[in-house]
Write a structure and sequence with these properties.
The protein has 391 residues and is of the alpha/beta class. The chain is built from twelve helices and eight strands. The protein has a single domain (1-391), classed as Spore Coat Polysaccharide Biosynthesis Protein SpsA, Chain A, CATH 3.90.550.10. It is globular, with a radius of gyration of 22 Å.
């Protein structure tokens, strides 16, 4: 084997590891290393839903209504909402709901300060032991709270992450909607098996819950709020479990640009969060958590770099062996399909396979931009209508 072929094998392995090899390894390990949860469907302590909102006049009432329709003891549910400098009718809607719902509903109006600062203040106002963090574009099914809370009867559990599905406001099969739907199905396989073995290391900002006593103040505008809270649980030695029967439906409109914008922010915030919790990568102390964190998060953020390196080395060595030539042809096909996906997106053609290739390339591109954003320290927690809802 030539040195160039060795480089090729290493680069292909590094690219495939996060997307293919790691999920397959998890599936195998999930059949041998299983930590069962002592779940109890009758466990229904007082809970508080927290929502940080900015200009959510079209969504906030629906979010609250879905909470009110939960099949959970009504006197055990509190709702607290923070309006972060909203300039639409969000504040007026919150005022109206306060009159209608009474003492178990409360809201606070803040000057525009960013999601992290708003959440820090809201958390201090929570009086229950368990907090459910939720986004305004999230709708919960009737059994969601019961399915989440049953896991907390196991005292080792410190955080529970809900399952997510996408119900887009636009019904066309654009790349953003198609790609995000497939991505969440793919992620669910990883989440289920990480959770079976020990803990999830990837958050879901739309709906997740935490024991309040395990939280600590979010330190700045650079970190991702939901990921920071999840890692606080892991740092304290508690489990973060994925509950596939707790359903959160995201209803916001999807588009390719929307997803690119969101992922740039998510990657920048995610990297900052991992740096804040660098201790979690100590394999000797944190074991499975470290393995999952490096495989699931770090390798995914490095994937664009590996893809760029493969392209550069392909230009250098494509004529050196049959193996390099096949990789050369494969890359041409991938980028050609991505280009066809972009064309079909522009002209409204439903070419699904091509759009999947486009989504893969665009997500790696946005991941690269997110890394650059982190390095430039230009990340912040002030989000807009198509902005950051967590990753």
């Amino acid at each position: 084997m030539s040195f160039s072929d060795f480089i090729l094998i290493i680069l292909v392995f590094l690219i495939l590891y996060n997307y293919v090899i790691y999920p397959l390894v998890l599936i195998v390990l999930g059949n041998f290393f299983v930590r069962r949860i002592k779940a109890d469907l009758d466990f229904s302590p007082p809970i508080t839903f927290l929502i940080a909102a900015h200009n959510e006049e079209s969504l906030i009432k629906g979010a609250v209504q879905s909470i009110l329709e939960l099949n959970y003891p009504k006197n055990q549910i509190k709702i607290i909402i923070g309006s972060d400098g909203s300039t639409d009718n969000t504040n007026a809607i919150l005022e109206q709901m306060q009159v209608e719902l009474g003492k178990n509903f409360n809201y606070f109006i803040y000057p525009r300060s960013g999601k992290n600062k708003v959440l820090n203040d809201l958390i201090n106002k929570v009086e229950t032991d368990f907090i459910l963090f939720m986004d305004a574009d999230c709708r919960v099914s009737s059994s969601t709270a019961i399915e989440i809370m049953k896991n907390y009867s196991d005292e080792r559990v410190g955080c529970v992450i809900a399952s997510q599905s996408v119900i887009s406001e636009n019904n066309d099969e654009n790349t953003g909607r198609l790609g995000d739907t497939l991505y969440h199905k793919y992620e669910q396989i990883i989440r289920i098996n990480e959770s079976k073995i020990h803990s999830n290391v990837n958050s879901l900002g739309y709906l997740y819950s935490v024991r309040k006593n395990l939280l600590k103040p979010i330190p700045d505008d650079f970190v991702c709020d939901d990921l920071y809270n999840v890692y606080s649980v892991l740092e304290n030695g508690f489990r973060v479990v994925f509950e596939k029967n707790a359903h959160a439906r995201e209803i916001r409109q999807k588009s390719l640009n929307n997803e690119l914008h969101r992922r740039v922010r998510a990657v920048a915030g995610g990297i900052a969060t991992v740096f804040a919790y660098y201790r979690l990568m100590n394999v000797i102390k944190y074991g499975w958590v470290s393995f999952f964190l490096i495989s699931h998060k770090v390798f995914r953020w490095l994937s664009p770099l590996f893809i760029i390196m493969l392209a550069i080395f392909t230009i250098m060595f494509w004529e050196s062996s049959l193996l390099w030539y096949l990789i050369y042809i494969s890359q041409i096909l991938v980028y050609l399909m991505s280009a066809l996906g972009w064309v079909s997106e522009q002209f409204g053609i439903n070419f699904k396979i091509a759009k999947i290739f486009l989504f893969f390339i665009s997500m790696n591109y946005s991941s690269l931009l997110g890394t650059i954003r982190f390095l430039k320290r230009s990340q912040n927690a002030i989000w807009d209508r198509i902005g950051f809802n967590g990753e």
